[in-house]
Every structure is written in C-alpha cells, then in structure tokens.
Amino acid sequence: MTTIGIRGAFFDFIDDPWKHIGAEHEAARFHADGLLVIDDGKIVDFGLYDHLSERHRGLEITTIRDRLILPGFIDGHIHFPQTRVLGAFGQQLLPWLQVWVFPEELKYRDRDYAREAAGRFFDALLAAGTTTCQTFTTSSPVSTEELFEESERRNMRIIAGLTGIDRKAPAEMLNAPEGFYNESKRLIERYHRSGRSLYAITPRFAYGASSELLAACERLKREHPDCWVNTHISENPSEIRGVLADHGDCTDYLGVYEKYGLVGPKFSGGHGVWLSDDEFRRLSKSGGALTFCPCSNLFLGSGLFRLGRATDPQARVRLSWGTDIGGGNRFSLLHALEEGYKVGMCNNTLLDGSIDPTRQDLAEAERNKVSPYRGFWSITLGGAQGLYIDDLVGNFQPGKEADFVVLDWNGGQAAQAWHQSLVVEKEGPQTMEQVANLLFGIMMVGDDRAVDETWIMGKRLYKKG
Amino acid sequence: MTTIGIRGAFFDFIDDPWKHIGAEHEAARFHADGLLVIDDGKIVDFGLYDHLSERHRGLEITTIRDRLILPGFIDGHIHFPQTRVLGAFGQQLLPWLQVWVFPEELKYRDRDYAREAAGRFFDALLAAGTTTCQTFTTSSPVSTEELFEESERRNMRIIAGLTGIDRKAPAEMLNAPEGFYNESKRLIERYHRSGRSLYAITPRFAYGASSELLAACERLKREHPDCWVNTHISENPSEIRGVLADHGDCTDYLGVYEKYGLVGPKFSGGHGVWLSDDEFRRLSKSGGALTFCPCSNLFLGSGLFRLGRATDPQARVRLSWGTDIGGGNRFSLLHALEEGYKVGMCNNTLLDGSIDPTRQDLAEAERNKVSPYRGFWSITLGGAQGLYIDDLVGNFQPGKEADFVVLDWNGGQAAQAWHQSLVVEKEGPQTMEQVANLLFGIMMVGDDRAVDETWIMGKRLYKKG
C-alpha cells in the first residue's frame, strides 16, 4: 500500500451544470495549485496544495506542470468488437450492420483475434483519455471473456456483457435464448464485481431480439438485480418500424424494454434519437438512462438527438455520452463533445423560432448548447451518474478511484496554440473562466492530441509519444 | 529553370464522380508507381514511371515511398482574419459575428498583427495540405495587403479581396461604398494576376451591404470582368429574413446578387443552406457556384446543406468546399469531408422515405453520400472547377501548377493503423479500390495527421514534424 500525491491544476465537477443555468461554474471546482492524495489507487484527500500539504508531510509528490488534470473520461456506449471497422462507408444503421459490422464481429469467435483486439481497444481508449467504458461485446462468449481479461490486466473499471441477438443477423451469429441465459449467468458469476469489472445484461437491441430472448434477459435481471442492463433504443427510423412490427403489442420502442422489466436504474439505452416526449417522460420517471452518441448519430445519418428535451428539468433523463465506435468514427470523447455541440446548435436553430415560430421553445433551445461545463461534466461526473457508478468514479471526491487524464490545452492542429493564447499566454489558467475557455478550445479546436497522460488507479498507463 | 521528378503512388481525378454513379472510379486515375515531371514549378509530364522514365533520362528524381500523392487541397471559403478566433462558443451566425468575430477582425487594421496572422494562416493551411484558398480578409485594406504579401512570399495560388461591409457592424469597421470602390480598384491593380494572386470583389454578405455597396461591386465587376466575386448566401434563417427586409424588391437571397449583376462564372456564394429549388436552378444556369462548408454549418447550427439537390444532374450547381474558418473549427479539409459525409448521411435518411414517405427521393438521397471519390474530387479538381481555376490547378494534367500533398494513410488516432490494415498490410495500395478505401479511412478515421508533406510549385513547403 503506497500513498502518493499528484500536484497540479485540477478541474472537476460537484454538480450538474444544467441545474445552474447562467451560473454553470457553481457546478465545477478548480484548484490552480491542487493536491490529489492517492492511497492504494483510491483518492484519500483532495484540495488546495497549500491547505493539504501540512497534513501530508513526507508524501511522495509528482508535480504535473502546464496541464489541466480532469477525472478520466467515461464512455457510456461503445462496441469493443468494432474497434477495427470504425468509419465504414455508405450505409444507415441496418444495412451497415449487415455489410460491415456482423462479418467483423464474427471474427471474435476466434480467441486469438479477440485477444489482440482487446489489447488494441484499451490502447485506443487510454490514448483518448477514456478510463471507463460501458461496452458491447459480440454474441460469442469468447469476446466477452477476452475483454474482461484484458481490462483486469489493466485494472480498469468497465461495464460489459455478452451481447445477445437471435434474429436478423447471420445464422452463425445468433444466440439461442436458453444458451444466452446460461452463458450470461456463467459470465456474471465469473466477472461481475471481480476486480473492477461490472456486468451488463446485454440484449443487443429489440430489433434483433425475440420475445424469448428478452424474457431471458428479464430472468437474468431478476436473478442478478445488481447487474446493469445495456442496449440500444430508437436509433434509426427503419429500425423503429421493424421493432414495432415484431413486437406488435408494444406501442413504442421503450415499451418493449418496459414489458420485460428492463427499464429502471442501471438501464442504458443507446441513442434515443427518435423517442417521443412520452418516452422521455417515462424514462425520466423510471431512473433509466440514455446514452447520447452524437458522432455516431451523424455518421450513420440517424438524426439529431433532442438534448434539450432530455435535459428538461420537468422530466430530466439521466445521460451518459458515448463514442459508439464503430458507428462513431473516433475513440476520443472530445470528438463526441465536438459533435454533440454541433447537434445541439442545429437543434438550437430549429427551436429558436426562426424557421417555424410554432415550434419555438427558447428554454429547450438554450439547453441544447453544449458549453464546456456541460460537455466535460457529461463525460466525467455526469457519465458516472448516467451509469450509476458515481459512487466509484467521476470526480476527485475522497473515496473514489483515482482515474484521471492530463490535458495539454495546446495539443491539436497547427492553429491550436495561437487560438488558446487568446485565453492564457505563458502562465497556466488562474480562474475558472479561463479553464472553461481552454476546455472549449480543447473540445472544438483540439482533439485527442490534447491527451498527454492517462492514469488508472493512481498509475500512469498512457503517456503521449 | 530546373526539371525535377517525383516518383510515388499518385491519385487524381479527370472527371466528376457524380457523373459516374455506380462506376465512380472512371472519374479517377491511379498510378501505383507513377512519375510527375515538374519544370519550373509546372507539370510537364505525368504517367506511369515505366512509361515515362525512358524519355526523361538523367532526371533528378525524389522517390516518396509508402504514401499517396494527391493534388493539393483547395479551400473555397475561408476567413483569414478568423484564424485565431475559430471555434468560439455559443452563438448562431449573427450574434457570433458581433460577439466574437468583428472584435477580432478589427485588430487587423494593425499591420503588425495582420502580418503575424498571415504567417500563422498559411502555416495552418500548409499543415492541413491546403495549397489554394479563396479567402475573405477584413474591411481594412491593411489585412488584404498583408495576406497577398505573405501568399506571394510562399508562391501560393490564392483568391482574395477586400471584404466590404457598410451596415450592422461596429462603426469603425464599416466601409463607405465609394471608399470601398477606390480601395478595391487599387488592390486589384496591385495584386490581381501578380504572381499567383487572383482578386475577388468581395461584398461580405447582402445582410451587411447597402444598395450603394452592392452597386459599387457591380461597377468593379463591370470594369474588371476578369476578377472573381466572393460572398455569402443563405447561411442562417435569421440572416435571410434580415436580407429580405433590407432588400424588399428582391424575392429571395440570390435575387439580391442577381440584381447587381454579380451572379455568373467566377461567382461563389458561401453556404446556401436554405436556398430554394428555384435558386438552385437559377444558380445552375448562371454558371455561379456555391461553397459547401459542412463543418461551419454544423458548428453555427446553420443547418444541413442539400448536397444531393446541388448535384442534381438536371440543375447541377458548381461547388467548391470550404472550411469556413472560423465558423468552421478546423483548418483541415479532411475534416470538411468528414462533416460533409455526416451532413449527407443525415440528408440521406431524411430523403429515403423512412421518416416522411411523401418526401422520398431515392436519387437525391444517394447523391448525398460523400464517397471517397466524391469527397476527394470535391477538394481537388471539383473545387478548382467551382472556383474556375481548373486550367491552373486541381489535378496532375501537364500544364498545371505542381501543388500537391503527400498523405500517410496511417496518420491519426491510435486506432488508425489497424483500421487501415483491413485494406492494405505492408505493401502500399495496388488497386483503385484499395486507394478509395484508404482515402475514406483518412477522411473519416484519420485527420490532418495524415498530411505528411505539402508541396507548392514543385517545392516542399511543409513536412510533418
């Protein structure tokens, strides 16, 4: 058991900026000269260096200069077995799955391929500053095992599960519901809460699930209520039609998951682009969450997620944000913030009354603006809350696990440094407002080159080359 | 006068891929082992190395391995004086101009600031592989002069002009129409066709132009018909309302520019997001062009440009593509291709009948898909055609100027190389299809890190550090 200290400029959140409209800084915390004390991978103290150093005499301190230290980024929706096939050309969701994705995922029945891929997957996450993800695997348990084995080697907190599908995919990919139930049970017993691993019962999506498969998921959740549930919802119009055709007794997409008792705390539905206002309200009430994947929603042409609706204080829906690799084309959640900002601004114009005065909703229009506070909260503490893991990660509260990312605000395209010099010159940021402006520069003008180091449980696992 | 040869893998276009639906490769040309012969900055021969080497014995040859060599990228719409203020937070077009852009542009009345900025601007372009741009300056001639001085030092082909505005901006920014006319005339005489410089008569936009200012532009164009005309059109709904309120005798945005005789060959209107079908048809007929700026259209929430409508063979509109720095947040035209692909896919879903069967148009839906052929044509030969400079640049035809970019298909995020290994392993690409797949990987999974070298008139001006 070793105690270490990290000294530097820290920025994290203690509340949701959407609750502080006009005063978002109240949700954040900035220590220009802070100290993070880590014991055996967990945070035991955090505050201003000048306040804390007295009571931690003799502490071995690593000083990180000219950087911003943030909690590690949390990706709420990603597909491990699409690591290689990200950015595939030319199709919306359904044909894209058939043409590009399913053939690639079938390779993950091979243990060697799955193992190599798992290594590359976590390398890509760490280089992007992502320290936690909730990920899909494939319908083959081999892929789920190799994923968890690799995350345990790196001691990373992840949520994952065998990904069930029993229709509308190649025959060799389909799970029999009973087999899916048995394999899931075995994997839950082996991996759930082993080390930092958490298990999600994972029906891929209602579009590819029979009633029997969903009933198997219901049984799993009843028998393992501590487990998560991860799936997709309302991503693409054609998909939604297919779901309603198959599950004729349900009036909407959310209704299918409700019918099988899956919606509630620890439930994540990826996308939700086409959810009705009623579905938003029911989700809000249930405690279930959505995952916003702007990069993927644009890449597959799925549509513009109604971020301002999801963040309606009257019916607030828990949200995490995801890259959705390989529907998303970049591993960096900074890119998800960039694309989320753009989706939000398009919504802003649609709602400001300039196109259709009858649809004007200025409060919803405003909630669509992804400020740096809203953005970085969403991929740290907000993401942790969306995934119900904010007791474990998401900010620098003592008791939490010491996963963090070290950002160089000048990293990125050639124009980056001169842009950022509008905010700070040689000295680092001294005020919250400067930090916010630098962070907006990182998410909109910078990119993953801003990620200089990534630390897991107080150990540095990535340093930019 | 020195003759040099570049040996490597070359890819360029000889036709418009939108004219070859289902067989886009017919519009392209690939030499896995090619030779480009350059004399005094101009291309004098181009073809397969084995065919050409015989007739160029003793030629000093630079061999470029493991790379793809493409014509330099052409940015049809960019704002030089927004180099530093790109990616500014939180506003649609009109307030964004007031809050962020006009204050920055006012700094360019200072010659030292403008000179420093010009250096940084061209550094950023070259690092992005952009060899030609059509750029706005400010309402101060100082900025226009410093821009042209710097481009001439680098011997780059650009189109630019003093950018006139006489309303709806800070008083110290406004041009008097007569002053604008006189200064433009002086600058045309000094810079137009001096070296590689070309002059564009540049009313900023109808929103900020009185009838008198537009009449001054009309007079300039009549007196200097060889000059270009560069402006904005139909970017944002609120802007459009303002234009129609000010120019009450015009029924639409395009009509304002038509009234002053500005629309025709060498006319570029940036954006055109909200153009009517009728405006598309009139533009097509006139020979005037639009510039598609997808990154900016998303960043400012302007909307989804109807790419499939602009490329309707019945009323094809000339197009260049632009980054629109600083409404766009990245200098790299690869990023414009990424965002253009996403805009196109969103349009594809809106037009495929899955949302509204009455709006179904499958042909237009398909024309929205930005394949690698369509994309890279758009930022090379297509962009040159859009700007009426395809007699000078855009591909490797002998007689043209030798501006080119050297691409490393593995440059980008950590996941890039494994993704590209789906296409080629150790050997470089041997077939057109492999090239197209690598290029799609560059535009969607890679980024400006793919730009390894940028050459201007046969001289290497940029090498990735």
From TrEMBL, chains A, B:
Pathway: Purine metabolism; guanine degradation; xanthine from guanine: step 1/1. Gene3D superfamilies: Metal-dependent hydrolases, Urease, subunit C, domain 1. Catalyzes the hydrolytic deamination of guanine, producing xanthine and ammonia. The keyword Zinc applies. Its EC number is 3.5.4.3. Belongs to the metallo-dependent hydrolases superfamily. ATZ/TRZ family. PANTHER family: GUANINE DEAMINASE (PTHR11271:SF6). NCBIfam families: guan_deamin, PRK09228.1. One of its GO terms (molecular function) is zinc ion binding. Keywords: Hydrolase, Metal-binding, Zinc. This is Guanine deaminase. Its cofactor is Zn(2+). It catalyses: guanine + H2O + H(+) = xanthine + NH4(+). Residues 69-460 form the Amidohydrolase-related domain. GO terms for biological process: guanine catabolic process. Binds 1 zinc ion per subunit. The keyword Metal-binding applies. GO terms for cellular component: cytosol.
